[in-house]
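note to self — DONT lose this again. spent like an hour looking for the file last time. sequence + predicted structure for the chain T wanted, 87 res
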Amino acid sequence: MDNKYDYSLLKGKMAEKGYTIKTLAESIGISRSALSLRLNQRTRSGFTQREMVQIVNVLDINLDIISRYFFNFYVQKSGQNVRIKKG
């Protein structure tokens, strides 16, 4: 089973700090396309430890919460309708 990670917090932090995929990629020394592929789950390799450390440093992410940015599993919502009983 291929697990997908949810990088929405990482993308939000990029926006908060004023980084685009291009500018962040340049800051950490990889190509724009390589970063885009990783952020959008289009590669099996994912982020290397070196890339994660560089991103954390550039975006000023606290190391104590690094897992929130890189290791949250993506959970797909089911197509089922849920009924809520009103009290």
